[in-house]
């Protein structure tokens, strides 16, 4: 990781306040997602915590405790009990739009930097599969995504044990800087891992040098490890084994692609198969660049115009 990359990161993110969005639907995993989101919240920095909910008035069968007004009171009060000041943002699912699309539009409208979602919703959990919302958030959302698992232990701020997987890429470096500057709190530990196959050269001290310098500057408890994987295994399988060995509660990685075609195989596998919580960090500046470079007129108008703005036919 070049030191110039850290300088560029700090120029783009000078003492940035974090906007944390947490998607809730009244399920048990929503409670855990809110607790996790409150753990990232830093009041002294001026962070903003937004509770996001997509309502659907066509579901007249929903009981009272799953109605928006009740959910607002329940989750705002719960955030307060966790020493976080939360705002409520609710949007009705529009005709022809999915819950996922509506949630992503709501998160973008709130300028969410980190979206916290449960790995499943009210429909229940399935082994080795993510729920529709969490999978869509990973592939199509503009913000970084934290996926909360029912199988993950509950950690309090200052007791997190993060494992960060790096391949030496720019995306990994930006993700590591984001983790260190915006998410890690005093007392948290970070295990920095470079994973390679047995027949390949192992990463030496020079590979970790700039990462270590960042951690020392920020007084972060950092351990580095060059992890060797058998040829018969995938890199993601090796990383998931290490999670259990090191008793990690949150596995973190960075990605450079934003769509089904470009989500990396390692990030794809670990988010689907990890038993711990996972965080996939996206470079917001790259997201916007990718969005405008690949979008047509309608895509660009979707990004610029406020939600629900009527579009007039473009004349060339």
UniProtKB/TrEMBL annotation:
Chain ranges passing through the membrane: none
Domain UspA, residue spans: 20-149, 163-282
Pfam family, one: Usp
Top-level taxon: Eukaryota
Name listed for the protein in its UniProt record: UspA domain-containing protein
């Amino acid at each position: 990781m070049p030191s110039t990359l850290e300088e560029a990161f700090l120029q783009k993110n000078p003492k940035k306040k974090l906007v944390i969005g947490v998607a809730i639907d009244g399920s048990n995993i929503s409670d855990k997602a809110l607790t996790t989101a409150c753990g990232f919240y830093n009041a002294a920095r001026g962070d903003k915590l937004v509770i996001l909910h997509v309502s659907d008035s066509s579901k007249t069968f929903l009981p009272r405790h799953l109605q928006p007004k009740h959910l607002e009171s329940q989750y705002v009060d719960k955030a307060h009990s966790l020493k976080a000041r939360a705002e409520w943002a609710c949007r009705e699912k529009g005709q022809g739009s999915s819950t996922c699309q509506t949630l992503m539009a709501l998160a973008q409208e709130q300028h969410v930097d980190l979206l916290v979602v449960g790995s499943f919703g009210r429909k229940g959990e399935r082994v080795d599969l993510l729920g529709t919302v969490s999978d869509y958030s990973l592939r199509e959302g503009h913000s970084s995504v934290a996926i909360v698992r029912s199988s993950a232990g509950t950690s309090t701020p200052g007791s997190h044990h993060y494992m960060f997987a790096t391949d030496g890429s720019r995306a990994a470096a930006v993700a590591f800087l984001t983790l260190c500057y915006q998410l890690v709190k005093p007392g948290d530990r970070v295990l920095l891992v470079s994973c390679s196959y047995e027949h390949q050269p192992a990463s030496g001290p020079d590979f970790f040098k700039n990462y270590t310098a960042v951690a020392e500057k920020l007084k972060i408890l950092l351990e580095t490890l060059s992890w060797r994987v058998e040829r018969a295994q995938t890199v993601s399988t090796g990383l998931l084994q290490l999670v259990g060995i090191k008793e990690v509660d949150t596995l973190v990685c960075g990605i450079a692609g934003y769509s089904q075609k470009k989500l990396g195989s390692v990030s794809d596998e670990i988010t689907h198969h990890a038993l711990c919580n996972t965080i996939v960090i996206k470079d917001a500046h790259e997201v916007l660049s990718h969005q405008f470079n690949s979008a047509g007129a309608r895509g660009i108008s979707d990004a610029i115009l406020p939600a629900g703005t009527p579009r007039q036919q473009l004349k060339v």
